[in-house]
Amino acid sequence: MEPPIYYSRSEFIETDTGNKVSRRATIAGPQNIILGGKTIISSGAIIRGDLRRSGPGHAVVISLGRYCLVGEGCVMRPPYKTYRGAFNYYPMKVGDHVHIGAGSVVEAATIGNHVEIGKNCVIGKFTIIKDCVKVADNTIIPPNTVIPALSLFAGSPGRFVEDLPESTQDMVEVHTKQHYSRFQPLDREH
Amino acid sequence: MGPNVLYHCPCLSTSSVPPPPHQISSSYSFHPLHELFFCEECDAVRCNRCVSVEVSGYYCPNCLFEVPSASVRAEKNRCARNCFMCPNCRNTLSVVPSDPPDAGDGRLLAPISTVGEPPFFLYCNHCRWDSSEVGITFEKPTGLAAQLQKLEDSAPDSLEFDRLKEHFEPIIRASSLSSSSTVPSTSHSRHHSNPITAAASAALARDIPGVGKYTPLTRSGRSSGKDRSANKDEMPEYKSRLDITKASAYGSGGGDVDVDFMRRLETVSEVASLDQRWTYSWSTSLETRDLKPLRIPLHSKHSKRCPACAHILIKPEQKAQSVRYKIKLVAANYLPAITVALPHQIEMLGHISAEATKRGTKSTAEDDRDTRGGLQAGKTYPFHMALTNPLYDPIQVRLSVQRMHVAPSGEGEKARRPPFAISIPTTPFSVAPFAEAWEYEDDEDMFALDDDELEARLSGREKEPKAKSKTVGVLEKRANVTVVGGEVALGKEARGEIKFNMLVAYTYRSDDPTPSEGHDISPSKKAVPETKTFAFYTVVDLGAIIPKDEDSRLEAYNV
Ligand SMILES: [Zn+2]
Ligand SMILES: [Zn+2]
Ligand SMILES: [Zn+2]
Ligand SMILES: [Zn+2]
């Protein structure tokens, strides 16, 4: 019994698999980005698929699973490091049912399934987030952090706060699916 | 947070009736449905407060290594590999080689496990603390905990702890022998009575007169004299390795060392905060520069049991990072899920979202929930409750509001009736069974505004109110959800939160025949389906009434 979240039909492009991507989002290097389906990229989001590993051919830089949400003004940027003297970008993989709140910057290496990241967070380079994790609003996760499954992290630097309930997976799944169905075009444009 | 429904676990109350919602104890007795368990054996709801918890496995939260329980104690419950916490900010430390590579662009790159030159040190890429500042460096970048082992083992706190263990071990051994033979197995055996607590309570009983009779050891009868003689736990006096009066040599003992330090102090950050020193088991230096890296404490996975019958309710899979369970008896699989909403609020939020979309501005609907869709004293509002059936059989539900009185706010004032009245349907209604096909894939389950209405609202021309439809009663049935309507009438002087306790009783077909009637049941006979009823309490929170001075702001919105 949640209210719909309306968007203007002219702003969003809907793909065959139900992804909804705002025309006001910056999708750099779209050929290197994979969206799993029913994933929403909000307005003002920046996804840097152009920052790819050096070398020939094309490579997946950022992949997102099904029922994800990249909030308004989020920045998704692949992590980078200098290894044996060579600077390189590394791919970022995001699972299914992952919501990223507005204004967050993400440079993680992997994010599991059923993960909720709050608003205005910074997820540092090469962070590994396991399944069923929640990161509270305004959390700063320093580079290389590992966040174990079923835990809540908050603060600056982000620290473990508590274990999440056993039914987190079901809860997040319902929430992300509901969010997708609440996200509806407003038909009457003038 | 909008309106919500919480479920009662009866573990804290002596009666089956929960406390009224305005009592403080209410918040301890009610929980979100998804945090509750269900014991089939006892046919009862259980919560995290009452289940008994057992550790089913240990792992390091950073390297995710699963530590066998046999080595947990020897490793002092902390990761014995490469995982350290920054003593300054509690971030995880990285191992870096000497001379971190300079990016040359003025940015400080946090070097990450590059193969470099020894010595290696621990570096915090959040606050830039580094272990070479406290004289800790490593020859190789692996097995750091082992390399630090010598330092750790010779620390005064671990030496003292070893001595304490040596002192108590024979006593614990002796008391475990005596307690297993002399303590009768009363109901107290469930209360984690192990040799250590037995020894501790015996010591307490001896030192503090009168305490003894509350301990499980002396529970039977009051013959304290006799029981005391039964305690074979005469404890020899412990002599500490270090004289506590000389502890100031290690800092924070308040002696000359600290005074000297204070004299030389230039900035506050030179003093380690209490938070930074708190986890040390020994008196430590006051100085930030003396803080040592901390091995990361292990985490554990838990099994949960019913406190009454000891049946397992939660059993996680062995693998530390698996989020699956071998056994998971959660209340959400047994009890109907109830959500509550105020239609006027939902409509308002939808309207705000639509308006924002039209204007091309960012929607701030979530933040406006409290004021624009708020409740005003003296008005009557309909509310909707949606009940979702998790069972594969239909259920019959009956709702009733628990009568209550508001506690007197002062001396001599009598308990009053709450300043609002709730009407909900009192006749039973059905909720269809759950079926996989009704999963949320194509859920269009929302209160959308119809276009004309939207148009009218946006242009400020409100239509004539529609013919009043039924507010109290069953409003809608779809899939395994039944929506019922209720109404809340707020008194003129109503203030505060609108909360009420609601009893939910549901009847379902039970698969197993009742054993007591088990004479001559042949399967060929047409079985009359057994029905069972389960009842539980909820607290329904409809939100807060807007304080009077905010009313004027609302008029602009035509609520
Ligand atoms: Zn309980
Ligand atoms: Zn570790
Ligand atoms: Zn630090
Ligand atoms: Zn039980």
Short overview:
Chain B: It comes from Rhodocollybia butyracea. With 190 residues, chain A is mainly beta. Helix content of chain A is 8%, strand content 40%.
Characterise the protein shown here.
The complex is a heterodimer of chains A (190) and B (559). By secondary structure, chain A is mainly β. Chain A has one helix and 25 strands. In chain A, the strands form five sheets. Chain A has a nine-stranded mixed beta sheet, covered by helices on one side. Chain A has a six-stranded parallel beta sheet with strand order 4-7-10-15-18-21, with no helix packed on it. Chain A has a six-stranded parallel beta sheet with strand order 5-8-13-16-19-22, with no helix packed on it. In chain A, strand 2 (12-14) and strand 3 (20-22) form a beta hairpin. The radius of gyration of chain A is 16 Å and the shape is globular. The relative contact order of chain B is 0.13. In chain B, the strands form six sheets. Chain B has a six-stranded antiparallel beta sheet with strand order 2-1-22-21-16-18. A five-stranded antiparallel beta sheet of chain B has the order 6-5-11-12-13. In chain B, strands 14, 15, 17, 19 and 20 form a five-stranded antiparallel beta sheet that branches. Among the domains of chain B are: 4-32 and 336-344 and 373-510 and 537-558, Immunoglobulin-like; 157-233, no CATH class; 244-287, no CATH class. In chain B, strand 5 (52-59) and strand 6 form a beta hairpin. Residues 101-108, 182-192, 212-230, 440-450, 456-468 and 514-525 of chain B have low confidence and may be disordered. The longest helix of chain B has 27 residues, at 156-182. Chains A and B meet through strand 1, strand 11, strand 24 and helix 1 of A and strand 14, helix 9 and helix 11 of B. Bound molecules: zinc ion (4 copies). One zinc ion binds next to loops of chain B. Residues 60, 62-63, 65, 79, 81, 83, 296 of chain B line the site of one zinc ion.
